[in-house]
# Entry
Amino acid sequence: MEVSPVYMQSDDSEQDRPAYPRLFPTGEARKSDHLKAGLCVDFPVSVVLPAGGTGERTGLQTPKQFCPCLGRPLISYTVESFERVSWIQTVVVVVAKENIGLMMDIIQRFQHKKVLVVPGGSTRHRSICNGVAALGEQRRPAAHKPKVVIIHDAVRPFVDEDFLHKIAMAAKEQGAAGAIRPLVSTVIATTSEGYLDHSLERAKYRASEMPQGFTYDVISEAYKKCTESDFEFGTECLHLALQYCGTNAKLIDGPPTLWKVTYKRDLAAAESIIKETLSQSACLITGGLEAAVALANVLQKAFGALNMELNVTPDLMGGNARHLLEDWNFIKVSVDPFCPSEVEAIILALEAENRALLNPAVIIWMHLSVTEEPSTSRRTTESAALIDLASTARPRNILLYGIRLHQPEDSEQWDRSASRVADIASALIRDRNPAFVGQLLQA
# Structure
């Protein structure tokens, strides 16, 4: 079998990977949380992602697994969901032969480190079989042969570690396990003439979902024994385990986030979820200036009313550098005079951490004028500086915006201005609209 190993990652380098925004900690914090939550797994686990589909139901020329969400292919999000789990050793991505080059380019561009690329077959079961076989090849070290194999869809990007842990543990104990969800619609049978024959009692049935887990021996043996008809027309791996190995799968209620990108509109929904996840918090950098700290205090309340968390720090040095790994959005408050190097330093820090590689980071330069309204010439100079910085940051997947704010003497007017700033900033963070990159908005 032709197998293309690409960028295999060791356990040590896993600590350096950027985590998924807010929901998943990085490095030692991640390992510590696993211990506290009891999510440690003491047996080898690998994943097979069949990704050879053409995505006909989306109506798009590009297969849906390769369609972009916020400039990043959908399958990259799915791979990341598994790579961030420290106890998962290998992620086998099975793609059509003509898409192997595309997949390897994605792996290199987004620096996925645990991936094996395997050529797929003409059907879903043939592709999964190829992935399972690749995990058991003799040339792989014995220590890398998985005890449990998790099978998941490449176009289900939102799977959390807690549920993966449930599937892995149940699969080890029972031989097979799978996610289920309640049926949304009643299932009916029709006659050959197109009339209602009968309906099923919905309460007795469940929808079979992904992920599914198997001991390697069970899923490998099932594929060795299954027929050509199974390979050609079958879709359910749990059924193969039952029919050919006598393994009755443990069924586990899955969360609603396991939904599958099937239609074109689902891509928009996935992008919306990703934006929402990225937009849950921001880090405001005051530079230790009194006026900036006062503004931060007002903005924290305003952001709270918008269901966003605003973390305030004087700088990103020393221990405060943790915000570079924890946050995806940064607000730098500059008090007269404006100094472009302050914003440039944040851009360089994010680049050094490779922070914006997987998801776009947002920086908002907030210029607070505490004396008088800036002149037209100064506005022009500031706008030009912002545009220059934004053009430098954009290729690095960093979106730079600007907000100009004048602090009035009237306290009520100041509160209204700060509230408007919070609205503008949260909208920029939430929408991540490239059309506004480099613009200096007036609050």
